[in-house]
Amino acid sequence: MSRLHWFVAACAVVALTAAASAEQGNLAGPALRSVVAGKTVVLATPMGQVPIQFAVNGSLSAYAPDLKTFLGSDRDRGTWWVSNDRLCQKWEKWLDGRSHCFTVRAADGTTVHWTRDDGLNGTARISH
What is the pTM for the complete model shown? Predict the structure, then answer.
């Protein structure tokens, strides 16, 4: 998988998918929403960290100047929502503007593990 593909998938990140009967530790419903709403989710990628702001109103934004070459733009905005115990997001420009959903599992303190529907996974840190 190319570095660009990995990074783009990681940015979608914050897309998280959970089984109907959430696996042990997976965040779901209102708990999942409260973990990201009004917070910054800092994704760990091979090319550096990407801070994504998740507004309470369902909008999201990010600025990643070091990754402009890979993403085509140094900043983007979009929307996020929780559906079927998954964190979903859709960027305006990044990731070709497609929706992606992820399951999110609490790790320790402010760290979460995320897994996208296609199996891509990684970690992120939740910041206030």
Answer: 0.79
